[in-house]
Description:
Layout lengths: L2 E7 L6 H9 L6 E7 L6 H8 L3 E6 L5 H11 L4 E4 L4 E3 L4 H12 L3 E9 L7 E5 L20 E4 H7 L10 H12 L4 E12 L8 H17 L6 H9 L3 H4 L3
Parallel strand pairs: 1-2, 1-4, 2-3, 6-9
Antiparallel strand pairs: 4-8, 5-9, 6-7, 6-8
Helix pairs in contact: 1-2, 6-7
Amino acid sequence: MRISVITACYNSGITLADTLDSVSAQDFDGLEHIVVDGGSTDKTLDIVKTHGRRVAKVILGPDKGIYDALNKGIAASAGEFIGIMHSDDMYADPSVLRKVADYMSKSGTDGCYGDLVYVRRDEPAKVVRYWKAGDFEPEKFRRGWMPPHPAFFLKKSAYDKYGLYKLEYPLASDYELMLRMLYRHKVSCAYLPEILVKMRRGGASRAGVFNTVRMLRENYRAWTANGLNPSISTFLLKPLSKLGQYAARP
């Protein structure tokens, strides 16, 4: 099995070394790591050269944002499965991709996901929040649920069949894609009950009243654009579902 990991970056010099090192440390031979850079003006590309020991491809050039960059990486990938590793995140340990590959082989599903912990940006060893994703049930989408995007792996053939990330959702394209794949098109998926990713707090969908309102609007459009009819509880429960992540522990 071959897994292509896509990392989109833009002026990511502060955090990228940790990301690249965590990918390079994976004890999995079937790795293809693709870095897509949108025109960084800091030391991002120098860091790729010095820390990206297992980077197979670097795609350079302006893009229309992170999801456009991820689409470029997916289009250029040769792996059977696709994983997303953001430029400020890290794999939890060197065995993550091997565990994913073994689990996918055993489950026979087209996708899988695991758990994720949020860590402090300046102290990535400090866990501040635990996203325990739980077993896969498509109807959980109606209760505000979604898998953790950085801990989500999907067959490339699903992207070929049902499409890539849609750029009209600048904050919620990951949500729209998983809703489209797993709920609308019933792509098979399974839950791997392991912490797969350490995610630094902050990012494109960072908290705040304005961003929360924008996110919920995009979530609603994601449902209607896919011909689905959500209930109001879907959007009320989505932000509330995150509260338990602060009380949970790995």
